[in-house]
Design goal:
Nucleotidyltransferase, domain 5, 5-stranded mixed sheet, disordered C terminus, alpha/beta, 3 domains
Length: 601
């Protein structure tokens, strides 16, 4: 029920989880402001049930917390309209020009009336009404239950942990109902306890988004660009001092004064106001230019990334000190920052650290479903959480899509072996295999794959396929049993491509396509038992090249969500300069006359 990343997750009686984001249906990345109607319908169809057979609908948003959010909104909005500033001037005896006072009063009253209109009906009744109206088209809706947004994040993260031990869950994002960060003591009994929360407008996520906008990127969309750019910068004491001046004395961080002036109706970030504030302290950046070419921009990104890491480390230490718990899990959009996660996992105070791969708001639906399960219910957790919860397609369905697109088939002995050989020859391909991933990371179901030994291949993927800056790095999929020979790994590996790991110096020149300027890579450790086809592909590539890993990036075009269907994969194949496509066991290649589809026996 937040503004972005709507998602539906369904738990079947046997504990199977089905889930998909609404963006995969509507085609708009993050699907802002949409209800996940198509995602709900897919979950029901995949389970073979109707809405009337669902026992409970859980929602990761607590309407009873809305009055607290409204209070924050009122203060922010009135400050934005100038009414509070006028009042302060009058109170201090300073003259205020009448036109300015009238304008501020008119804007302030309009804002108050708008907020009042949202409070005229009880927030819970209003939200229940919206949900029931949406679900009525699918049948008689079941009972509804609401959970706090941050508790749902925490529950999604705890699902990765040992179910018999307590854990400290750390949540950091933009904002939930009114909290921007929180610590939770998660207990196997289901009696979870809030340890500490940091309310808006003191939000580390908002500050990072504002910094993203200052660099000329799109906030809430391109934070990964700031993270990647940070590795190209160097420490600048003047920048550190300037950022320190934007903070207050609060612990573990205090951005209230900064954010008070740059948020307005609905707690939306005012990019113009935040840019003006940054520019007044740090100077302007060249308009429309590439920040990578500007040393000040690179160093600013470096400083902001360091600040983020230090603040989250401080929060974690507070949590450990207050609870005595050293087993941690984490979720919330800020934990999509894999560079930060790579530093956190090396903290000596932490015994174990699990980051939910669906760390953003799509993961709230997962957490809400898990909280809705009675703790007394037999609810076994898998040995390894698998985010492959989405739509899957048979080879027959893939073949039908290919025939509809006018592609023809030829039989070959082994399509996976053929893919490995093509990768070893420097070709770039699409890999579409099995159930789609939940969350932003492609994990071997909807992936663009290539040879990591050639940095030029990575440049081609960035510029000609993904439409990204050339300085942005790629992650890799690596055989779990050989990963430690190549990079520094935490215990248990990194199966979700959400933690940056340092590559051993001896390997950095061998796999430049996946090594960032700081010597790190973002790996997915692939286990044969969980992804047999993908593991076999990488194993065959290793036999051919001596390198047990491949480039893996999400299968999508510029600004698009991950592809969902065979038809979408075919469209991407025909509109981008990739060399081949593996589509549910079918290998599609290019010829001089028309695409050639080769079908495995």
């Amino acid at each position: 029920m937040n503004h972005h990343d709507p998602c539906a997750v369904l738990r079947t009686p046997d504990g199977t989880l089905l889930g998909v984001e609404e963006e995969r249906f509507c085609g708009e990345k993050h699907a802002p402001g949409r209800f996940p109607a198509q995602a709900v319908k897919w979950c029901l169809e995949a389970a073979g049930i109707g809405i009337a057979q669902v026992g409970l609908v859980t929602v990761g948003y607590e309407p009873d917390h809305m009055p607290t959010r409204m209070a924050v909104e009122i203060a922010s909005a009135l400050r934005h309209t100038g009414l509070i500033q006028v009042w302060d001037s009058v109170r201090k005896g300073s003259p205020v020009p009448a036109p300015d006072a009238r304008t501020a009063l008119a804007k302030g009253m309009a804002t108050l009336l708008e907020i009042q209109s949202r409070l005229d009906r009880a927030p819970r009744q209003r939200m229940e009404s919206i949900l029931r109206q949406q679900l009525m088209s699918m049948g008689t809706p079941p009972p509804l239950r609401f959970f706090p947004h941050h508790l749902c994040h925490a529950a999604s993260a705890y699902h990765l942990c040992n179910p018999h031990k307590a854990a400290l869950a750390v949540v950091v994002d933009g904002v939930g109902e009114s909290s921007s960060a929180s610590l939770w003591l998660m207990d196997p009994s289901g009696e979870h306890r809030l340890v500490e929360e940091i309310p808006m407008p003191n939000s580390l996520g908002y500050f990072y988004a504002a910094a993203t906008a200052y660099l000329g990127f799109t906030p809430w969309m391109n934070e990964g660009k700031l993270m990647a750019l940070a590795a190209h910068g160097t420490a600048d004491p003047d920048l550190d001092a300037a950022l320190e001046q934007l903070q207050g004395p609060g612990i573990p961080w205090d951005f209230s004064a900064f954010l008070d002036g740059v948020t307005h109706r609905g707690l939306m970030l005012d990019v113009q106001a935040s840019n003006t504030l940054f520019q007044s302290r740090l100077g302007s950046l060249p308009a429309g230019g590439d920040p990578f070419q500007v040393p000040h921009a690179r160093n600013f990104a470096h400083a902001v990334q360091q600040l983020l890491e230090e603040k989250v480390i401080a929060l974690i230490r507070r949590g450990i000190e207050r609870t005595g718990i050293h087993d941690l899990c984490a979720a919330g959009g800020v934990f999509l920052n894999c560079r930060m996660n790579g530093r956190l996992i090396r903290m000596p105070e932490i015994a174990s650290f699990m980051v939910q791969p669906v760390a953003g708001d799509a993961g709230v639906a997962l957490g809400a479903v898990l909280l809705g399960v009675d703790p007394g219910t037999n609810n076994p957790r898998p040995e390894l959480f698998q985010p492959h919860m989405g739509p899957r397609y048979s080879r027959e369905e893939a073949g039908q899509a290919l025939r509809a697109a006018g592609l023809h088939a030829e039989t070959i002995p082994d399509a996976i072996d053929a893919v490995a050989n093509r990768l070893a020859r420097g070709q770039i391909g699409l890999w579409f295999d099995g159930a789609m991933e939940l969350g932003p990371r492609a994990l071997g179901a909807r992936s663009i794959i290539a040879d990591p030994r050639d940095a030029e291949i990575a440049r081609i993927i960035n510029t000609r396929i993904k439409g990204r800056e050339t300085w942005r790095p790629f992650g890799c999929s690596v055989l779990a049993e050989q990963a430690e020979n190549i990079m520094e790994l935490p215990e248990g590996g990194t199966p979700y491509m959400i933690i940056a790991c340092q590559v051993h110096p001896a390997w950095r020149q061998r796999i430049p396509g996946v090594v960032h300027v700081d010597g790190s890579t973002r790996p997915q450790t692939v286990i044969a038992a969980h992804q047999p086809n993908y593991h076999r592909l990488i194993s065959r590539f290793a036999t051919l090249t001596g390198v047990p890993l491949i480039i893996n990036t999400s299968m999508n075009g510029p600004g698009q969500p991950l592809v969902r269907t065979p038809e979408e994969a075919i469209t991407l194949f025909t509109h981008t300069p990739v060399d081949f496509m593996f589509l549910e066991g079918i290998l599609v290649t290019r010829s001089t006359t028309r695409p050639l589809c080769q079908l495995k026996h």
